[in-house]
Amino acid sequence: MPLRMIPIRRAGNRHSLFMGGDRELVMFTGLLAGSLVFAAQEWKATIFGVLLWFTSLYLLRLMAKSDAYLRQVYMCHRRYKGYYPARSTPFRINSRAQGKQYK
User: Fold this and answer.
1) What angle do CA 83, 88, 94 make, to 5 degrees?
2) Among 3, 49, 65, 96, which lies 20 to 30 A Cα-Cα from 71?
């Protein structure tokens, strides 16, 4: 008896993108650029805010095109420890000499 094939629909399996980039990063960059423009109320700040918005939107779209989960992967990478000692386990009770060895 062959295995039953169940199709995975694209609508239920899409990345959370906004304007082509990572949703949170695009909205946060828009917030920064908008607050810069409206808080400073100068032509230089307006030009810089618009350039910041379009440049970051372009870069975030490139980032999402290469890997839509790049921000989540980076944040997971940042949580890793710098060093994992050999044969470490959360259930091992080290003596005082063994504990000083890894610090």
Assistant:
1) 110
2) 49
Separation of alpha carbons 94 and 103, rounded Å: 13
Query: pLDDT at position 50, please?
Result: 95
**Any domain includes 102:** no
Q: Is residue 87 part of a domain?
A: no
Give residue 48's pLDDT. Answer: 95
| Cβ neighbours around 20 below 10 Å, total | 14
Residue 6, pLDDT score: 86
The residue range of the domain holding 24 is 17-80
Q: Tens digits of per-residue pLDDT, 25-51? A: 999 999 999 999 999 989 999 999 999
103 located within any domain:
no
Which residues make Cβ contacts (< 8 Å) with residue 19, sequence separation at least 6?
26, 57, 61
